[in-house]
Model the fold of this input.
Amino acid sequence: MLLADAGDKNSVLISGELAGKYAFVETGLNGVDAPLSSATNQNTYLLSVGLNDNKFAIQCDKRFIGAVLGQTAGSNFSYAGQGTPSLSVNLQPKSAQSATKGLSNYKDVLIEGVTSRLYPPTTGTDNTTTYSAINGARGAYAAFSFQVNPNISQNDFSKYGRVAYAMFGTSNLYDYIDTIVYVRGINTNVVLQLPIRVIQASQS
Done:
């Protein structure tokens, strides 16, 4: 019901699904003055100076997010030729966690960061920016998803979110809670705020 109502299924993560959709975050040097994407520039400006994130901390509210599913070290993002990239992502539950400093109810879950191998082809048109948000030297990427805390009660949805709401313009009603997930690169310390909406079919 949710997937049918949502329309854009690319924005929907299914709780606990290892082979489904996932969030994808990249780091690197972006902008008009950024050094061009290449293996050489990646090494010069990122790898050799310790600015490549081999791990990311996923910081989430444990009241709503039960588990983080992170990519494994065998994941890969590279140029496959014929104008298309090769992206291989495998997810698994991550258990290493600690309390997030300065954020009540939050936990840090460490996941692997994998170095991007998406370099422009040596000949022909460079269309790698069609598949990457970074237009300069690319660093690491992180792919991840979530498992919703199974202990969220109906009272929690009433207290922290909204219940019996027709959010997609159909007659179907949903309960939801909005929360923010922070994605922090361990080496670069860059932080992305990612809004997440936890949705269930209305229980009211």
About this structure: The longest strand covers residues 174-185. Residues 47 and 165 are 48 Å apart (CA to CA). The longest helix spans residues 39-45. The radius of gyration is 19 Å.
